[in-house]
Amino acid sequence: MGVHAADSLTLLRLEHAVARLLAETPEATAVAKPLLEAVGSVLGWDHAAVWQPGPDGELVCRASWQVEKRRDLDAFEALTRRLRFAPGRGLPGRVWKSGEPAWISDVARDPDFPRAEAAAAAGLRAALCVPVTGDGAPLAVVEVMTHKKSDPDPDLLATFESLGRQVGRFVEQRFVERAIRESEALLRATLDAALDGIVTMDHRGKITGFNHAAELTFGYSAAEATGTEMAELIVPPALREAHRRGLARFLETGVGTILGKRIEITGMRADGTEFPVELTVTLIPRDDEPLFTAHLRDITERLELMEELRASRARLVATADEARRRLERDLHDGAQQRLVSMGVDLSLAREHLAAGEIVEGGKLLETVEEQLDHAIAELRELARGLHPGILTRSGLQAAIEALIVRAPLRVDLTVEPGPRPPPATEAAAYFVVAESLTNATRHAEADRMRVELHRDDGWLDVTIADDGRGGASLDGGSGLIGLRDRVASLGGEFQLESPAGNGTRLDVRLPLGGAA
Amino acid sequence: VTGHDGLRVVLGEDSVLLRDGIARLLEANGMEVVAQAADAEDVLRKVRAHKPDVLIVDIRMPPENLDDGLRAARTVRAEMPEVCVLVLSQYIEEGYASDLLGGGAEGVGYLLKDRVKDIERFIDAVRRVAAGGSALDPEVVAHLLGRHREAGPIVELSKREREVLALMAEGLSNRAIAEGLVISEHAVEKHVTSIFSKLDLPVASDHNRRVLAVLAYLRA
Description:
heterodimer, A: alpha+beta, 16 helices, B: alpha/beta, 6-stranded parallel β-sheet, 10 helices, globular
C-alpha cells in the first residue's frame, strides 16, 4: 500500500515540467512525445504511450516512450504499437469510454489487459491511464507503466487528472489557432489570386488590407499601403474630400450612398497618374467599428475598347450615310436629269410632229434614244456599285473574276473550292478585293497582284498582296478603315502590312458560319 | 410653234442637257432666253446684267449643291422685285416653299422639275409668274391642304369647293380653273364666293389678291 506513492515535490516537478513543455511547444501534434518523456522521467516510470481513436474509432497508439533501450521493453513497445482497442476494451479503451482515470496495481492480474504477457516479460507491473479532455470530450488517453508494483496513489491520480485537462485545453487551443491560421492563409491566398484589387479600410479610413492585384494596380506594396489613409494613397486629390465626407456621413448616419453599388470613379497610382476604376464597396458589420472592403478594377482597357467600338459603329453609320448621299447625288445629277430632259425632248418632238415638222421631230427622237441608252448604262453602273448582282447570282469566285477582268493589272487568283459562305462574308470578301484592286491601281501603281481565298476550320482567309509602292495606312480617307470596320462587325480579323516601297499585303479572316 | 410674246428669261440649271431642253422649249413658245447659267453665282451675275422678266432656276446648283439656287432666287427678289422668279426642284420640300413665299406669292413660282415636260402647263406657269401671279406645284398645295384636313372651316367645304381652292392655290385663273374642271367660269365664281365666305376671307376683286389671301390662309 502506497509503497511508491509520489511525494509532493515530485508532483510539483511533474506539474512544472508539463507547464513548461506546453508553453514551449508551438504545435499540438508535437507535444505528445516530449510530454511522455517528461511524465515518465519525472516519475521514474518505464513506459508511456498516447492513444487516440483512428478513422474507424478504435484507439491507436500515436506516440510512446521507454526509459531505456532494452529488448524486453522493445517487444512490449512493438505490441503496443500494433494493437487496436475498441472503446471499452483494454486499459486505454476503458479509460476512453469512461472518461475517468484508471490505475492497475499489477497488470498480470487484470482481467482485461491483452498485453499482460509482454508486460510481464518486460517486467512492467503497475499501469496508470488518464484521459486528456478538451471541452468535455476526450481527445486522447495517456498510459504510464512502471516495473514497480504500485497501488493507486490518490494524489498522483488527481495531479494526472488535472494535467490531462490542462493538456487537453492546450491541444484544443492549438487546434483552434491552427484552424484560424489556415483559414487566414486561405483567405490571403484567395485575395491574392483575385483579379480585382481588394482593399480593406477601417472606420478611420486607414487601409487594413491590400491584396496582390491592388499592389499591381496602384504600384504600392501591401506593407506600404497598410496603415495609410486610403484617400491619401489611391484617391486623386480632387476627390479626397468627397471620399472623407462620404465616410464621415456614413459613420454618423448609417446611410452610405455608394455601398453595394458598382460605380466608376478615378483612381491614382503611386506615380500620380490617374485612371478609371470600377469600384464596389461592401460593409463588413462588426460588433465594434465597421470595416469596409473595396473591390477595384482598372477599366482603362475596357473603356478604350468601348470607345473603339463606339468609334467603329459611328464610322459604319457615317459610311452608310455617305454611301446614301453619294447614291442620291448620282441619281439626281444623272438619271433624274436625263429622264426630265428626255421628257422635254419628247414633248417638243410631239409638237414638231403635230405641226408636220418631220425632220426636227425625228432629230429630237434620236436624241431621246441616245439619252435613254446613257440613262440605262448609268443606272446599271449605279446598281453594280450598290451590290454586285453577279455576287448574289454566281458567288464570290465569279464576282472576283469579273473584277479582275476589268482591272488594268495582272492578278493571280486562287480560290479553294467549298460551299458558299454566308452573304455577309461573301460581300465583305468581295469588297476587300475590290477596294484592294482600286488601291493597287490608283495609289500603289502595282503591276501584279495575288489574291488567295483559303478555308481554315470555319474561317475564310483572304490574302491579297501586290508589288506596288506600299505605304498604305488606315488613316485618312483610304477605304481600308471602312473595310476593317466591316470585317470587325462580322467578328473577323484584319491585318495590313504595307511598308513603304515594298508592296501591300492584306490578310483578312472572315467567319464561314454554319456553311464551313 | 406660237408667236413671240417677248418675255425675257434667264435660265439657271447645271445639267447642260436639261438646260438646253428647257431653253428650246421656252424659245419654241416665243420667249427669249437671254442668258443661261450653270451655277448660282453665275445666275446672280446674269440676272443683274440682263434684268429679265423671269428667272427660272434649279434649287440645287453648284457651288455647294445644296439650296444655292433658292438663295440666289431670294437675293434676286430682294434686290430686283421687278424680276419674277420660278424655282424648279427635284423634290418638293415644304421648307423651300415657305422660304420662297415668305416675301409674298406675287411673281413667284415653285414647281417640281418634272412639270417642264408638260409644255403647255409649264409655259402657262411661266407666263403667270411673269405677270405677277403665282405658280405653286400641286404637291405643295396638297401638303398645305393636308394640314387643314382634320379641323377648321375647310372641313365645311364641298368636294368641288376644295378642288377649286386647290387650283386657286396653284395660281390658276378662274378661266383656267373652269377649263381644268370642265365647268363654266360663272360656276367657278360662285364657288370662289362661297369658299371666301366659309373661310371668312376678305372679298377682293383682283384675282392675284384672292390667291394671296388663299395662300396666306393655308399657310397660317
